[in-house]
Each structure stands twice: as structure tokens, then as C-alpha cells.
Automatic annotation (TrEMBL):
Higher taxonomy: Bacteria, Pseudomonadati, Pseudomonadota, Gammaproteobacteria, Lysobacterales
This protein's record includes keyword tRNA processing: yes
Superkingdom of origin: Bacteria
Assigned keywords, A-Z: Isomerase, tRNA processing
Pseudouridine synthase RsuA/RluA-like domain segment(s): 22-172
Gene3D superfamilies per UniProt: Pseudouridine synthase
InterPro entries xrefs: PsdUridine_synth_cat_dom_sf (IPR020103), PsdUridine_synth_RluA-like_CS (IPR006224), PsdUridine_synth_RsuA/RluA (IPR006145), RluA_PseudoU_synthase (IPR050188)
A Pfam short name: PseudoU_synth_2
Protein name, entry field: tRNA pseudouridine synthase C
Length: 253
């Protein structure tokens, strides 16, 4: 295994898996994955850090929003990254995200709701996300005509990869993602800031499972919830969730 060029550098990203052709790293919230038209005035990108960190070419196999933390898969050349990208497109990559939403949804629910591709891409395409409720909490703070404010911890399994899919599907289900300034509930976000100290979007790419393009073996990677998530779990009385077997969440959801 190659050694990280500067393993103790403060800018280096935690490596969750590395081999000769690919790696999975843990992207922090707030860091853009790569330069784009959305990156006005930005100069710090995960892709640039990783090229310096690994001392070689690095190509993203998929994308994570700036505000989303967790598993980011990269290839060490364009051919490998393209093959991994095709695996995402063909839905052979298993992804589980952690999210905190407003309200208490059903124990298991599915949102099957078409989504457009974002700005400049008005065509709507099929989009499906499965959700499993892992924990609930209630704060004695009035909100939206209710005497309390309810929150739930979710495992989210998107079966398609549309633009901001989980965020928009939770909005569609009226269980808005906490901390989401674009598609969330402003009142609930304010309560989360004031009562829970939440100053970020609560979406984390928790697990990633895929077939290795060279060996054909299954690779399963987990990005542990970071310190901010752990403080939130403690504040709400939630035990940190154990990494799931994805198949345990998909049946009957």
C-alpha cells in the first residue's frame, strides 16, 4: 500500500481504504469536492488535497455536496474512475447515508418521486430513496404550532443518483433535512442551532459497498460519524449507530 505523502498534515483527509488503483477517503463537511462554476472564490478542494496527499493523479468516481461529509471514492487514473462511475450509474454501488430530519417519520418509508437535474437541467427523471428510522428525540421547544420539536435519525439508501436527491426527497416527504439551508425547514434549523449547536447540514455518507474493478472482490467501507455527530448523539441521548449491513435495510422498506 502506498503511504500518504504527509500523513500528519492538517489538510490531509482520512483514508478509509487504499489499494493500487483506488481509494476511499472521509471528506469533511464544508469542503468542496472539486472546482466547478459553483466554486466562486474557492481555492481549497478535496481533489487538489488528494493529489498532493497521494502524490499521484486522482480522479473522482462520484460527487458529494460541499455540506455532506463521509465516503468519497476516487480512482488513481481516469479509466478506473470511469469504471467506478459506470458502477454508480448502473446502481451496483450500495450507499447508506446518515441524516437527521424534522419530525418522526414512519419506521420505514420510501420516496419514489422524479427529480430534475438541477439548474439548467429541467428534465425530470425517476428517483427513489429508501429510509429507515434509527432513533427519535423530542425537545421541549415549540415549533410550527406544536408544543415540542421532534427530530429523527435516519439511514438513507438512494437507489438513484439525482442532484441533491436525499435532501429533496426528505422535503417532499415533509421531513426536511436538518441544517439544509436550500431545501430544509428554516424554523427547525434555527432551533437546531440554538438548542443543539448544529451549524451544518446533517447528512453523512456513512457506508459504501462496491465490486473492486480489478480483483472483482467486494469492498465495504465505513466512515465513522465525526466529533460533531457524536456531540449531537450525546445531546439527544442517541447511541451511536452501528454500521449496517445494507441488505438488512432494504428488505420490506
Amino acid at each position: 500500500m502506498r503511504q500518504v505523502a504527509e500523513p500528519d498534515a492538517p489538510w490531509a483527509l482520512p483514508v478509509l481504504h487504499e489499494d493500487a488503483v483506488l481509494a476511499v477517503v472521509d471528506k469533511p463537511a464544508g469542503l468542496m469536492a472539486h472546482a466547478s462554476p459553483m466554486a466562486r472564490g474557492e481555492s481549497d478542494f478535496a481533489l487538489d488535497r488528494l493529489r498532493r496527499q497521494f502524490g499521484r493523479d486522482v480522479v473522482l468516481a462520484h460527487r458529494l455536496d460541499r455540506a455532506t461529509s463521509g465516503c468519497l471514492l476516487v480512482g488513481f487514473d481516469r479509466a478506473v474512475a470511469a469504471e467506478l462511475g459506470r458502477a454508480f450509474m448502473s446502481r451496483t454501488v450500495d450507499k447508506t447515508y446518515l441524516a437527521v430530519c424534522r419530525g418522526w417519520p414512519e419506521a420505514r418509508f420510501t420516496v419514489d418521486h422524479p427529480l430534475d437535474g438541477g439548474p439548467g437541467k429541467p428534465e425530470k427523471k425517476p428517483a427513489l430513496t429508501r429510509f429507515v428510522r434509527l432513533a427519535t428525540a423530542e425537545l421541549p421547544v415549540p415549533s410550527g404550532g406544536f408544543e415540542t420539536s421532534r427530530f429523527a435519525l435516519l439511514a438513507c439508501m438512494p437507489e438513484t443518483g439525482r442532484w441533491r436527491q436525499i435532501r429533496r426527497h426528505l422535503k417532499h416527504a415533509m421531513h426536511h433535512l436538518v441544517g439544509d439551508s436550500s431545501h430544509g425547514d428554516g424554523r427547525r434549523n434555527r432551533i437546531a442551532r440554538m438548542e443543539l449547536g448544529v451549524h451544518r447540514m446533517l447528512l453523512h455518507a456513512w457506508t459504501l459497498g462496491f465490486v473492486h474493478p480489478s480483483s472483482g472482490e467486494r469492498v465495504e467501507v465505513v466512515a465513522p460519524p465525526d466529533a460533531e455527530w457524536m456531540r449531537l448523539f450525546a445531546r439527544l441521548g442517541w447511541a451511536p449507530p452501528l454500521p449496517p449491513q445494507v441488505t438488512a435495510f432494504t428488505g420490506g422498506a
